Amino acid sequence: MTEIRTPRLLLRRWHDDDLAPMADINADPRVMQWVEGGPVHDLDGTAEAIERWEEEWDDEGFGLFAVELLASGELAGFTGLSVPEFLPEVLPAVAISWRLGSQFWGQGYASEAAQATLEFALQDRGLDRVISIDRVGNQASANVIRKLGMVPERETTHPESGHPLRVHSIDLTEYEA
User: Fold this and answer.
1) How far is the C-alpha of 10 from the C-alpha of 103, rounded, in Å?
2) Is this model's pTM higher than 0.85 or not?
3) Which neighbouring-strand residues pair with 12?
């Protein structure tokens, strides 16, 4: 079982009891305003998503980690790696992403989890390059991406919602520099 510990977080595979707290996060319009064009997800949609995330772990050897606070054991959301199949123009690529409950915003958890995940991608999984895709205007995600040392690569639009997106990247040599 793949786990990563940071000073404040445990990044781990998904447990059955993660469904309800992740569904609460996915049902929050403040969280979802920057995701997939903004629709919230219910319990069934969240269960399907977690199932897909776990399948990606099995198929690719990486996926989205559940992010747990070490101090309280609370599920804060996710961070991890996925193949951004919704955006064929960037393939083949592996993207790092995150989604945290709004009560966990502004405390550095996203940056801490994303940095650990980037190191996992480039050092442990042997990837040469990682991208991140954010919706233009999402300043919180842009800040995390900047802290990761990623550089803008291109602008595009979401193929379904039409929202403007920005693709950032970092490769192993840039990461090690």
Assistant:
1) 17
2) yes
3) 66
